[in-house]
Recover the amino acids of this structure.
């Protein structure tokens, strides 16, 4: 499928949920996209194809939708996946970072012993909003001496200027809203 056909497939299933999880927030819900076989295949192609030629050693999936997307991307690229998890979920932690969300705040943790120095990581998540999550995950990866080769997200919300939080780390967004 061409990228424009694949983008049309993703847009067809993408769902905007008003006032979730708080009044005034428009939540972009990928659940119907991922529940459809062609939606999942199109999303996986769109997230992985732009980085297929880049030197990437491992995928890092950001909790929780980044796990679903990241595992599919890792399979497509022939790579493994490392989860960046919310605080308290990992039995062995290499590093933690706290950050602000579009709504609230959170702490992310990187598992110990799975990301060697010099590894080139592709970070995957569903939505880039304020960029706090992606920036914190990037800092975790870099705190181990690994590199952020690129970040791939399905949806970027440019009005929230999240891209600016990422500095010169390459960001690939499938769609903007
Ligand atoms: P941020 O740190 O503000 O870039 O927020 C990104 C994280 O929060 C991602 O992991 C998203 O899953 C989630 N998120 C933030 N805003 C939204 C939104 N409007 N719709 C869906 N997910 C969102």
């Amino acid at each position: 499928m061409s990228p424009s056909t694949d983008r049309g497939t993703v847009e067809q299933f993408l769902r905007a949920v008003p006032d979730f999880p708080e009044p005034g927030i428009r939540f972009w819900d990928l659940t119907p996209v991922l529940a459809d076989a062609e939606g999942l295949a199109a999303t996986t192609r769109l997230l992985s194809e732009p980085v297929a030629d880049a030197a990437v050693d491992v995928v890092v999936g950001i909790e929780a939708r980044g796990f679903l997307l990241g595992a599919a991307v890792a399979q497509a690229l022939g790579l493994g996946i490392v989860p960046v998890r919310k605080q308290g979920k990992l039995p062995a932690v290499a590093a933690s970072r706290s950050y602000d969300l579009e709504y609230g705040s959170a702490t992310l943790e990187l598992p110990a012993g799975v990301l060697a120095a010099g590894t080139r990581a592709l970070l995957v998540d569903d939505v880039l909003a304020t960029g706090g999550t992606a920036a914190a995950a990037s800092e975790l990866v870099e705190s181990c001496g690994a590199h952020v080769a690129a970040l791939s997200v399905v949806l970027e919300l440019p009005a929230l200027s999240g891209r600016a939080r990422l500095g010169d780390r390459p960001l690939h967004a499938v769609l903007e809203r």
About this structure: The chain has five helices and nine strands. The longest helix spans residues 65-77. The chain has one domain: 43-176. The CA atoms of residues 88 and 109 lie 8 Å apart.
